[in-house]
């Protein structure tokens, strides 16, 4: 049982202990593997990191540390190891005061008419860090925007004089019934938007009959989220494959035991993307985006010393490849879906090796810049279980994707914004909005059930004739041409 | 004969009486069928609703109530049942004072050079409610704008050295002569723009030799509008099909008896579209847009309890389908035209079952978002009696539609704006502007009569290579990328 | 010899005399034929109109009046018939004072780097009337802007390693040598920009070896302009065909006698276009744009009385047609060129009936809105003597047109702006700028003489994939969608 | 040995001596050949020009003057020949004071996240002259912007489930190993951005394993730059061919002796382009852009006198043509690459005559306006050693070019901006940024080495469907249409 004084001496990169919930941990070896970067841990080296830890992490995350690094309960006056910023938190910045005021003035939920409204409120009342983390995309965010804008190149071909008295919006995805043809896709770090984070999404899905995909990088532990589900509520699981396959195997088997109905293996993120908006935010020391800063530093040092080839941390396995899928098939009976397919050749291969389906996705525009908009890839692929995510904001977007052959769509950020602004009630309202829009537009297009939708309802001739979204950085540095000037008035 | 005191006791949703023009009505059963929503009625439960009623409704609309709900003349001091807002109306809001001032400063009619000018004036001097109701469209209003902008992708191929001394702009539509190749299409709630509402349009059409299509949802009764016509003036009738076919039959037979020359059955509105601009306006308690609010509430409750399938109010028959058209043919000899066709397959079917023609229309962009611009659908359809409406603002728009094979175009909002700003004189001026533009441009294109126009006069290669209109909501929530900042100056 | 007192009594529409340069004229019958409208004449009915007349008209224009309307020298005190605005002119408006100041501060000519610079200066120092008249186009001015923007869809395919030490920019058009491959095309009312108006252009063309096309509607008489030419200077003549063919014949024969080398018959203007920018300017009472106002008034009256068919004034012959071209061939040996061809069918016909060539032109975007950009029509037409005008601002525009098969380009407005801002020196500078740009870019593209240019130098694949210019009026009346609002801070 | 007094008498265009580093030179005959124009020299006629000379020129540049013009050391008090502006330099303009302040506040290098950040900082802290010279392009700068924007029409087709643990970014170009698949291309006048100019680039290339292309128009002498290289560092040489072939031969042979690995002959600049932004800057008297002013003046005089054909100065040989390439092959064994090819026909010819490769380039948009974007030309050309430059700002741009078949890309301006803002450390940081972006995106696209990249990774269907960049000048002179105005409030 280490004493407070003992802990305090392990306060550097070569020898780093921290205290979480009254227990000490030796995290020296873990520093380089921390997805959030080592800087944020080092800030608490030799001190109590509980508060910062709880802001983003599930409590059981410390269990992943090797047994020998669990040092046991700390003895002594914890005040002595309080972090440097312990006081700071009590005095509010001017920015925070303004944010609190905006929170008190936010529109009534009844005034929220569409998913954009949630986002607009979120942009103003979320913390800078949270907003920047949720909203950012890769490079110039062209793919991020194109994801949505590509839907606008598609027009409908509505039918008339169809009896649309009854419209049935329910569907079945991977054998799971869903009241609406979309699911809540996996997104990381729910606590950045709401203290109850991912649990909020679980509860709203429960009341509304919507499927939730649980993320690997949630702010709560897998079990905490799974426990939140009501009887008969279906959940899927999104997996980042860890280089340590034992860890991965344990996670997958546990998910299956808990009744997870689908395993979505993320294949578009062998490395976590750079997101400059996030990097520029004041997200200075506390969260995941530090991955990027650290990587940058390392890459500089490593590259100078070792040349261009280098390995990144073991958290995400950069070596993941087609052979590994067979292994997954050997350890689980859950249907396996590849999340992040972006070209038809890979869809064909996924089918050939026995995957149950794919998600056409570019990770919400957060990974590869100039990855194609998913709805455009959709037109390339035929006859397979296909989900699509990215850029969906309106029922019409959903209907376009379904008409083009996909079996359900994933929606992520909009529900995060609803959660961050109005909690569970907000997420349910977001579902309601989409249901109302769907029902209205199904009637107007002349379709009464999800299966009615097919290619005859859409005109995709405009696809690919896109206007690329504004290149803000290029335009901000380009100096417009001027004309000859009149002489100054004396 | 109910007394004032008696009426006052029936003041809630389960038991609701209101007074209109001195007579009491039991509207309890009607609450759910009111197109404008029950909220606005409940505001006057147990009270005198005359003033609010007259703002939008024709006096005879109460006749539709079942006999047993007509309770007769009310006895007693009507002051006792005056509505809560009786006083309010006397004191003007700041906004209203500003509006009145703008009305006094509006440009002379001689300064109005094109149809946009009417709209600009209307936007400033109409009530918020009226402007929002007339101007709004579905979702992001992309179809609303595309309706007009699609015309701009079409260029002319003018001929030269044609003797154009005389230009004849007259034509015949459904056997009715018209001095100009357009008609005033049906639009609802004319009183929102002018106390004389639809009658204004009738009078202007009379003096100018233009055909008017009378709307089902007019602010005046069908007869009031029909009575306004002069000898020999041709009118058509637009029909929303009521679930109660007896009501529908009565309306249709009456229209035929009154000499209506064409029956335009609306087929693009099995449900009334959501229009967010309208919902956001202060249109809080008084008019038709409440349909939307109510539906939203209901849908939430119903959906939670009964699942996704639900029926909406009986006012518009959501079950209307191709079979019903035969029934219409059995009850009337008027030519039947389907208003709201949006794909060639439906045009073919309309012809096969003996309809006289179609209107290619997306309801002015007010119903299905991403419905195609009518002028683009026009190119799909051949050899049928075709009208087109939506987005027409210039004579060149009309000439493009006519060149592509349509037989006449419908124009709606521009005449509402002319009516709302300058009354009958304004509408006549709007006709004059279009005639002058038509005459000028027919000369310049090298055509001397409407029949001269054909596909050789237009270049439609640019069609479909569109730039989608600004996505205001998406752009308002998207946060542009920033650059690195200079340090603050100390 | 009428007296001042006598003249004063003829002061109305039914009996209208005016005084010009001391002589009285009976213009009662001419009122309806005045291209500038009767209103401006009636303003001076019974008075001395000399000052207003001289602002835009050549002195000999009164000769066109029938002999019997020439009433001879006026006797008496001319003060008594001074126009109402005689005093006004002495006191300057605030606007005029500002304009005079800007004139004094205009950039030195050496600071003018391109043709846009002239236009920017002109926009600020020209009178409102002059600027509006020169710069305006039809309807929404989409064709006006498309004329220029269409050039920007064309890219070059430059050749390298060509000896470009010497670049010869001279060419021959209609047998006339020209130092540069463009000519100054006909534009009306030169005095609006400079007191010496069209003479300025003649002088600059003389010193620079450029061909000028003399306009029918010049501010100086044909002879005044022709007299300004130096020995050997080539001029062409642009003709509006008058309904009175005797007048036309006299004009054409006279032009031939004076040595005019080409007769350009305008065929794209059977009526003068409506230009709203011009109509909105304060151009209230003095000039040609009143054509439009008058026409509007008349059209209203006439149409109400006589139906849609009507004839406009005899000034421009609306009956002009292909048969008439034969007559022109019978009265002149000058080569005849049709100015305003806009489709290949008409080019073929022009060739078949023996015209010497065509000008692909849409009248600078001032007549038919949505007429195609000339450079796009150019690609339709083969093997004929072709000129092109409209939208040319850079040497690269000229080189694109020449590469696509035209034999020379006409430039109008830019030279008017140069003339209006810096007089003859300005026009010569404009020529210099174009020559410098041409020489530079001929070298850079790898061509050493005009004949080198051909289709292999341009990539026109982008043509027609245009982005339509901003629809200012539509956008100004469209109200953007809003979002839900935060509550007001108390 | 001339005296100070003697030098002072040679102070005009016909007889011009100047003093540089204490020695007098007779530059009378050289005036017309000075690339920077004669005006700047004449400003120092009869005086000491050392300071102005050193700002842009390498010290040995005076060696190019003929022997007889070297007049030897000057005797006497140099104060007597101090230039007029000697004092000026000590007092700072307001603008310069502001610039110095901005320099002191510039962001820390660690805050620079992408190449645009360097440019934004440069735009604010560089001198006007330097910024205008580096950033400007031809005419309306459409090609300049299109160079970059064309990349944005290309989307990726990423592969998944590829083992990307190790990514090798190294490559070989012209036999020279490079750690990254780009080189620092030749750009002129490095001292405008940094006192150590091109040497900075050499040093950064040395530490980072990047190839530098030495420019003919460097601010330091060829040897000064070559001397800066470390052992084994590879450099190429960019050549402007001088009309005096002896000079050219001497330069080429010297470069080969110094170990230069590739000779890049510029073929897209038979004349130096006009760049209006540069001309409008206050670049009034000191640098290279005066070429343009002088040319303009001369062209006016010459053209008036001698007609359109004229020769420009001998500095750049306008007669350079395909035959000359053979001569180069006879005087050097260095691989010869043509820099500035812009159409496939010329690429084929270059291959046929034995060139080692080509650079598809339009000189950074500084020469021919409407030259095609290099990445679009790339798709035309097959199987040849191809480099591409112009508009590259992101790793994704590089990967697109490499996927389309090029062997390496040249980057110019971004490194100039990095150099001008943060010196050598800035340039190295720029390399680091590109390496990090490359490594990240290679992983995300599913490629582990440069050779993996091929056409299957890109979707170029959108190419050529471009939106032309804003035409600033056209738009600045175009006056938007207005609407009818409300009357003024009294």
From TrEMBL, chains A, B, C, D:
Residues 107-463 form the FMN hydroxy acid dehydrogenase domain. One of its GO terms (molecular function) is L-lactate dehydrogenase (cytochrome) activity. One of its GO terms (biological process) is lactate metabolic process. Transmembrane segments: none annotated. It catalyses: (S)-lactate + 2 Fe(III)-[cytochrome c] = 2 Fe(II)-[cytochrome c] + pyruvate + 2 H(+). Its cofactor is FMN; heme b. Its EC number is 1.1.2.3. Its main location: mitochondrion. SUPFAM superfamilies: Cytochrome b5-like heme/steroid binding domain, FMN-linked oxidoreductases. GO terms for cellular component: mitochondrial intermembrane space. SMART domains: Cyt-b5 (SM01117). Keywords: Flavoprotein, FMN, Heme, Iron, Metal-binding, Mitochondrion, Oxidoreductase. It comes from the Eukaryota. Residues 1-75 form the Cytochrome b5 heme-binding domain. It is found in: Mitochondrion intermembrane space. The keyword Iron applies. The keyword Flavoprotein applies. Homotetramer. In the C-terminal section; belongs to the FMN-dependent alpha-hydroxy acid dehydrogenase family. In the N-terminal section; belongs to the cytochrome b5 family. This is L-lactate dehydrogenase (cytochrome). It comes from Pachysolen tannophilus NRRL Y-2460.
């Amino acid at each position: 049982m280490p004493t407070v004084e003992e802990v305090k001496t392990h306060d550097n990169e070569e020898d780093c202990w921290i205290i979480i919930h009254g227990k000490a941990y030796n995290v020296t070896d873990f520093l380089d593997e921390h997805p959030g970067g080592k800087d944020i841990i080092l800030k608490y080296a030799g001190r109590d990191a509980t508060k910062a830890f709880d802001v983003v992490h599930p409590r059981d995350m410390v269990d992943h540390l090797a047994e020998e690094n669990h040092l046991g309960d700390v003895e002594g006056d914890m005040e002595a190891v309080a972090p440097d910023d312990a006081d700071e938190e009590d005095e509010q910045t001017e920015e925070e005061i303004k944010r609190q005021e905006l929170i008190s003035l936010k529109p009534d939920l009844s005034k929220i008419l569409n998913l954009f409204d949630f986002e607009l409120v979120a942009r103003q009342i979320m913390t800078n860090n949270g907003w920047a983390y949720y909203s950012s995309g890769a490079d110039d965010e062209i793919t991020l925007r194109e994801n949505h804008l590509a839907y606008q190149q598609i027009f409908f071909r509505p039918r008339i004089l169809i009896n649309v008295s009854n419209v049935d919006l329910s569907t079945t995805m991977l054998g799971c019934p869903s009241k609406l043809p979309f699911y809540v896709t996996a997104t990381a770090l729910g606590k950045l938007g709401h203290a109850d984070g991912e649990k909020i999404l679980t509860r709203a899905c429960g009341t509304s009959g919507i499927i939730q995909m649980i993320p690997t990088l949630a702010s709560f532990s897998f079990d905490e989220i799974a426990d939140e589900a009501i009887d008969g509520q279906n959940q899927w699981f999104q997996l980042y494959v860890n280089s340590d396959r034992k860890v991965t195997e344990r996670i997958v088997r546990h998910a299956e035991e808990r009744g997870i109905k689908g395993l979505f293996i993320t294949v578009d993120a062998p490395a976590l993307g750079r997101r400059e908006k996030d990097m520029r935010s004041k997200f200075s020391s506390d969260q995941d985006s530090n991955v990027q800063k650290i990587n940058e530093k390392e890459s500089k040092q490593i590259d100078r010393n070792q040349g261009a080839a280098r390995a990144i941390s073991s958290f995400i396995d950069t070596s993941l490849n087609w052979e590994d899928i067979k292994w997954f098939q050997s350890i689980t009976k859950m249907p396996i879906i590849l999340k992040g397919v972006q070209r038809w050749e890979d869809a064909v291969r996924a089918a050939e090796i026995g995957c149950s389906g794919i998600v056409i996705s570019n990770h919400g525009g957060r990974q590869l810049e100039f990855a194609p908009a998913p709805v455009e890839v959709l037109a390339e692929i035929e006859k397979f279980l296909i989900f699509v995510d990215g850029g969906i904001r309106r029922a019409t977007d959903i209907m376009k994707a379904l008409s083009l052959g996909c079996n359900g769509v994933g929606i992520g950020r909009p529900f995060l914004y609803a959660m961050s602004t109005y909690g569970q009630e907000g997420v349910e309202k977001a579902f309601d909005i989409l249901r109302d829009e769907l029902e209205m537009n199904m009637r107007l297009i002349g379709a009464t059930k999800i299966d009615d939708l097919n290619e005859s309802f859409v005109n995709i001739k405009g696809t690919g004739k896109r206007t690329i979204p504004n290149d803000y950085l290029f335009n901000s540095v380009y100096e417009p041409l001027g004309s000859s000037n009149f002489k100054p008035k004396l």
